[in-house]
Amino acid sequence: MTRTFGGIELGGTKTVVVLGQPGAIREREEFPTTTPDETLSRAVKTLLHWREHGLLDAAGIASFGPVRVAPEAADFGTMLDTPKPGWAGAPVLSFVAEALSLPLAIDTDVNAAALAEYGAGAAQGCPVVVYLTIGTGVGGGVLLNGAPLHGMLHPEIGHVRLRRMAGDAFPGICRFHGDCVEGLLSGPALVARFGRHPGEVEAGDRVWDAVAHDLAEVLAMLVLTLSPQRIVVGGGVTNRQPHLLPATRSRLPHILGGYLRDCTHAALERLVVPPALGDDAGPMGSLILAEQALAAKGAN
Q1: Are 22 and 78 within one domain?
Q2: pLDDT per residue as tens digits for the range 30-47
Q3: Cross-strand pairs, 14
Q4: What are the b/e assignments for 265-295, b being 16+ CB within 10 Å?
Q5: Domain containing 83 — which CATH number?
Q6: How many domains does the chain have?
Q7: Taking the CB of residue 246, how many other CB atoms lie within 10 A of it?
Q8: Predicted TM-score of the model (pTM)
């Protein structure tokens, strides 16, 4: 019997609601992420429509964060101190669960995207995977043997502090940390840094040098701390600026200082890659979460 799943990719700028199976999105709806009530109500309305037509067996939520993903926590599924105005404390999971009464799972959008790339994308066969997204915010998901890494919370790679490029005085825009990864590399950070939309800045403009340096520092940190077989770098910034990833990779050997002999230029070409699933990685991951939710219910 073929099961059909619903998924919500809850992003900082837009929300994507999809119907299908892992590997095959059949229907989708996209709309801006506004207030919690308006956004979640619209997502639920779409899922209920599919359910009323007998098309929904379970659902998954791939959410921006930070969000509580530990099932044993009293605030499981609740948005924490997010930079997204108005969303701190939003009861994401319970809002959807009360409306659907179906098997339901929640994880971060980046963990979901990592699951999708691991299952059918650029990270197949890799025991240790990092998915880094650079868009409205910056987030990172980590998989160990196909399972998302959850600890005290979940990885918050976007708020790590960096060793800055000499002479770069941009203060960053993160309201928590200033010049953390998100404060330096997110889409809004680049607008503040450049004084214009990144799409208006030529690929060869030297203002990209500091951006490539910062991203290379992030990647070096990930290589040294997690030793991944694949780092998939997605999100609107890198997807729309294809010159940025090669420029970043070229800086990595210098930053690593010859310490890791295996990190040759050729090896880095295989290690640091764009998502094979493109912008569908997150929505596809939400369907994987839904499939896992149904499997977990059957096992209980």
Answers
A1: yes
A2: 999 999 999 999 999 999
A3: 32
A4: eeebeebbbbbbbebbbbbbbbbbbbbbbbe
A5: 3.30.420.40
A6: 2
A7: 11
A8: 0.94
